[in-house]
Amino acid sequence: VASGKGVIDRSKGALAFYEYCERNGAGDNLKRVALGQFRLAGNNDVSLRGVVALKDIAQGEVLLDIPYEMALNLGREGNDPTVPAFSFLNHYYGPWTQQQQQSIIRSSYNAYFDQLPGPPASCALADCLGSTDFFSDEALEALQSPLIAEETLERRAKTLARLSEEQQQDEETADRADTSCMTPELAKWAVWVITSRVLTVEGAAESG
Question: What global pTM score does this model have?
């Protein structure tokens, strides 16, 4: 089913996500928008994931309304993305050591988590590989942008330091979730998930 330039996602996972929205008080959103894929002009092999409008939406009208109960609370940290990233991993990969609590969280957000772009190991062309965090040192240098390179290397260092800190705390605290299976690549993916959750809006500004 096509809507404008976007194709509505009616896959099994997407339908499960729509049902999840209905169950949790976000069903009104499905009267306005749906998940969709947008092919890039001149390259039909590449598409962007976003939302497709199901009707005309006036300027100032609510596009998405997310109930508070559906929000996943990853803490108040606003400057260091590694903090919410590891909180996210604890939810995403539960149950671990804290089996009862984590299994409840994982199952309640399962339909949402399944719609997130997966980690590098899940796909050779995973979305996150477009982030400079996953560039080789040679590719990063080829950008010829010292500012981007410096920012990337600083974020990588923070991510590795956070991973080391989390694993050290695991050894010292018996009731924490086990992070021994976490790798630097998985940690970088989690940071990317946190920093890349933004909306892409298509269309001229004057069109509303």
Answer: 0.73
